[in-house]
Design brief:
290 residues; mainly alpha; 72% helix
Length: 290
């Protein structure tokens, strides 16, 4: 049987989930737009998700390993730095938990943002199927990256448990809501910048350049309460700082969330989301024709 792009890989052998002929049939199928548009969207996103999962399982192990190793290295590095400079017992919180609860969400945000900058071009060959839209590829990519980091988080939590670190969050609901909101925040900016970068390559380069400075300036490694008031005031203009403070404060009882401005986070999530959706609707035909 011929292998198409809707193929699932598992158990060391490939087997076709959707043969290419069948995939072409349902993709070309004229579904009533009013009644079945949501059904079409779900099926296409699911198929694109499986396609991306297949590529990951078929040989891109190095990428997955790096996604796991990068935050682990950073957690170890900055924990050692903190221990050498101040001593692990000098803080009222577990420094390993603090680093991990900030590092992993930040890398999740960064991955969703940077992958969104190239997702429209990467899936360009699929747009000749009338049922596949660039926005479908964007949503499938965000779901895939989020699920990938869910697996990475579970692995890191297991490692922390094995070395005796208390990994139980004090406010589980706050951590989950904070991460889910952070994913939406990353998708909002990913959509806006992804559309713009399709026409202006310099935006992708700028985002890549700002990746490390953003890591340093987003309160991933330190609570805001330890900073001088002037530095704290300036950092609070960065919306990512509010997300990090919320997640840190929800995970560790000894930290508070007094500096978190939820209305500020809402504005920085909703405004780029609507701008991105507006620009996408105006540019969708150009995506398909380019």
């Amino acid at each position: 049987m011929k292998r198409g792009f809707f193929t699932r890989f598992g158990g060391g052998m490939g087997h076709t989930l959707f043969p290419v002929e069948e995939a072409a049939e349902w993709l070309k199928e004229e579904l009533p737009q009013e009644r079945d548009s949501w059904r079409r969207f779900k099926r296409v996103v699911y198929a694109l998700y499986l396609r991306q999962l297949q590529r990951q399982l078929k040989g891109e192990y190095a990428g997955f390993v790096w996604l796991l190793v990068e935050p682990l290295i950073m957690i170890i590095l900055f924990t050692l730095m903190h221990t050498v400079l101040r001593g692990r017992s000098s803080s009222s919180y577990d420094i390993i938990v603090f680093m991990g609860s900030g590092m992993v969400p930040f890398f999740l945000f960064r991955t969703i943002l940077t992958s969104s900058l190239r997702v429209f071009k990467q899936n360009k060959p699929l747009y000749h199927y009338s049922q596949i839209k660039p926005f479908d590829a964007f949503i499938a990519n965000a779901f895939f990256e989020s699920s990938l980091y869910a697996v990475i988080t579970l692995i890191l939590l297991l490692l922390a448990f094995l070395i005796g670190v208390d990994i139980v969050p004090q406010n589980f609901d706050g951590v989950v809501i904070g991460i889910l909101w952070l994913i939406l925040f990353g998708m909002s900016w990913g959509l806006l910048l992804g559309v713009l970068s399709h026409f202006y390559e310099v935006i992708s380069k700028f985002v890549s350049f700002m990746s490390f400075p953003l890591l340093i300036l987003s309160a991933v490694f330190f609570p805001l309460s330890t900073l001088p008031p002037v530095a704290r005031e300036w950092l609070l203009y960065n919306p990512l700082v509010h997300f990090m403070e919320w997640i840190h404060g929800s995970y560790l009882a000894t930290l508070d969330t007094r500096y978190v401005d939820f209305s500020y986070m809402f504005e920085w999530t909703v405004i780029p989301l609507f701008l991105g959706l507006w620009l996408y609707t105006k540019s969708e035909r150009k995506f398909l024709d380019s």
